[in-house]
Write a structure and sequence with these properties.
Keywords: Developmental protein, Differentiation, DNA-binding, Neurogenesis, Nucleus, Transcription, Transcription regulation. It holds the Pfam family Neuro_bHLH. Residues 34-47 have a biased composition (Basic and acidic residues). Residues 78-103 have a biased composition (Basic residues). By secondary structure, the protein is mainly alpha-helical. Helix content is 50%, strand content 0%. The chain is built from 9 helices and no strands. Helix 1 (2-11) packs across helix 2 (29-50) and helix 3 (90-124) packs across helix 4 (136-156). Residues 1-84, 195-209 and 215-267 have low confidence and may be disordered. It binds a DNA duplex through helix 1, helix 2 and helix 3.
DNA sequence: TAGGCCATCTGGTCCT
DNA sequence: AGGACCAGATGGCCTA
């Protein structure tokens, strides 16, 4: 039912109906967009008033005004179970719209909060770039890999070689993200991705077996690589921009002693 | 033009 | 009862 009515009503949006937006919905581009869609919502309920295919207008059951005991009229159809449907009166309609607007605004805010959190995750994960943002899913994957790689360092207390570290970082990432990571580390992605290059030179085999055996691997179809802009790779190890000829050195020099200390404290 | 990504709306469900 | 959370649907934008 959702599909059918949205298909119909979204198409027939009437901008004139959008004048009733609440205070949360004024001004910006997004909001103008919303107004359009709101027009669709309004026309949708206009339809519902005389056509209750899905029983949506049974909302506000508790409403004591305007009880409507109308019968199906169609003898062929089996009688509808459940509470009897009521007409969408103007007042009922108004309240329904109000509730919907409030719920939409809450949902929007919720998603904005989620996106904010994702944005802060992007900033602490390798390869942050304002111009070339990682997609949501790639951000989560990279974050997961990053956490795994760091905890592996913590667990073993040893510094992995750059290849196995980046390999762990890029496990399951799409080709564009892999390129991004490689770009950050000034590496050629072909040199550290066995599943994407189909072959891995013996000298590139990870030094640490545990790094190679990533427990959370999954396959992502290789995707074409978009052109990437410049990116700031400095945050990857949370140090100032550096020459990453030996890309992990800054990180290991600063972080490993700390990690070892914490490791000792734990064990 | 197809496919990926995203924002938004929506109704259902669960929780307080 | 109302809010939070969720998943499905939809349309817009962008890129290969």
């Amino acid at each position: 039912m959702t599909k059918s009515y949205t298909e119909e009503t979204m198409m027939s949006s009437d901008p004139q109906d959008s004048a009733t937006w609440t205070d949360e919905c004024q001004g910006s581009q997004d909001e103008q967009d919303m107004e359009k869609k709101n027009g669709a919502l309004e026309s949708m309920h206009g339809d519902l008033e005389d056509d209750d295919e899905d029983g949506l207008n049974r909302l506000d059951e508790d409403d004591d005004e305007d009880e409507d005991e109308e019968e199906e009229g169609d003898d062929q159809k089996p009688k509808r179970r459940g509470p009897k449907k009521k007409k969408m009166t103007k007042a009922r309609m108004q309240r329904f719209k109000m509730r919907r607007h409030k719920a939409n605004a809450r949902e929007r805010n919720r998603m904005h909060g989620l996106n904010d959190a994702l944005e802060s995750l992007r900033k602490v994960v390798p390869c942050y770039s304002k111009t070339q943002k990682l997609s949501k899913i790639e951000t989560l994957r990279l974050a997961k890999n990053y956490i795994w790689a760091l905890s592996e360092i913590l667990r073993s207390g040893k510094s992995p070689d750059i290849m196995s570290f980046v390999q762990a970082l890029c496990k399951g990432l799409s080709q564009p993200t892999t390129n991004l990571v490689a770009g950050c580390l000034q590496l050629n992605p072909r040199t550290f991705l066995p599943e994407q290059t189909q072959e891995i030179p013996s000298h590139m085999q990870p030094a640490s077996a545990s790094f190679a055996a990533h427990p959370y691997s999954y396959q992502t179809p290789g995707l074409p690589s978009p052109p990437y802009g410049t990116m700031d790779s400095s945050h990857i190890f949370h140090v100032k921009p550096h020459s990453y000829g030996s890309a992990l050195e800054p990180f290991f020099e600063t972080a490993l002693p700390l990690i070892r200390v914490r490791h000792d404290m734990i064990s």
